[in-house]
């Protein structure tokens, strides 16, 4: 495992430890490595008004954009339970805004790396800026 990936898993785990998930009890942490090399972590942030809750990936993307980066090189997501915690459908779309089909998504559990899946396998037909080429 690369030193980068080790750092990313560590940062995602630290963010996950701060997850605000009182309603689902499901704690998630994410870490993005931007092409600049900088790492951005985030956790899920739930809300008493359920639809206002935010996934860990969305938090990490918000931190990345606020930090001035726009291109994702690699993503780590740490969930819990036996099943793979792959990004939800909405987060696959969110990630596709800043990542390509080959961008690796490292799916982890609390114990460590479980599987690495290219974003394009998770969302083969993303709606992307090219769809709007005549509009923007
Ligand atoms: N969740 C994430 O943060 N990321 C995912 O990829 C899947 C689901 C969160 C949303 C909600 O706070 C909790 O997990 C249960 O769905």
Provide key terms for this protein:
136 residues; alpha+beta; Cytidine Deaminase, domain 2; 23% strand; globular; binds tetrahydrodeoxyuridine
- Quickly count the domains: 1
In which order are the strands of the major sheet placed? Answer: 2-1-3-4-5
Bound molecules: tetrahydrodeoxyuridine
- Helix-strand category: alpha+beta
Q: Can you identify the CATH superfamily?
A: Cytidine Deaminase, domain 2
What ranges have pLDDT less than 50 throughout 5 or more consecutive residues? none
| First-last Cα distance | 41 Å
Q: Give the class-level CATH name.
A: Alpha Beta
Number of strands: 5
What oligomeric state do these chains adopt?
A: single chain
Overall geometric form: globular
| Overall pLDDT score | 96
Q: Kindly provide the radius of gyration, computed on alpha-carbon positions and rounded to a whole number of angstroms.
A: 14 Å
Q: Could you describe the 3D structure shown?
A:
With 136 residues, the chain is α+β, with helices and mostly antiparallel strands. The chain has one domain (3-135): Cytidine Deaminase, domain 2 (3-Layer(aba) Sandwich), CATH 3.40.140.10. It has helices at residues 3-17, 56-66, 89-96, 119-122, and strands at residues 29-34, 39-43, 72-78, 104-109, 112-118. It has a five-stranded mixed β-sheet with strand order 2-1-3-4-5. A hairpin with a 4-residue loop joins strand 1 and strand 2. Tetrahydrodeoxyuridine binds at residues 21, 24, 26, 28, 44, 46, 53, 55-57, 77, 85, 87-88, 91.
Helices and strands in order, then pairings?
Blueprint: H1 3-17, E1 29-34, E2 39-43, H2 56-66, E3 72-78, H3 89-96, E4 104-109, E5 112-118, H4 119-122
Parallel strand pairs: 3-4
Antiparallel strand pairs: 1-2, 1-3, 4-5
The protein binds tetrahydrodeoxyuridine.
């Amino acid at each position: 495992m690369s030193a980068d990936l080790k750092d990313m898993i560590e940062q995602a785990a630290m963010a996950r430890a701060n997850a605000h998930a009182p309603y689902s009890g499901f704690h998630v942490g994410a870490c993005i490595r931007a092409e600049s090399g900088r790492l951005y972590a985030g956790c899920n942030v739930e809300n008493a008004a359920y639809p206002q809750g935010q996934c860990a990936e969305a938090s990490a993307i918000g931190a990345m954009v606020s930090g001035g980066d726009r291109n994702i090189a690699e993503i780590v997501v740490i969930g819990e339970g036996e099943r793979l915690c792959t990004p939800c459908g909405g987060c696959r779309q969110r990630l596709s805004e800043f990542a390509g089909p080959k961008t690796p998504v490292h799916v982890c559990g609390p114990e460590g790396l479980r599987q690495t899946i290219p974003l394009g396998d998770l969302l083969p037909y993303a709606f992307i800026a090219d769809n709007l080429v005549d509009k923007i």
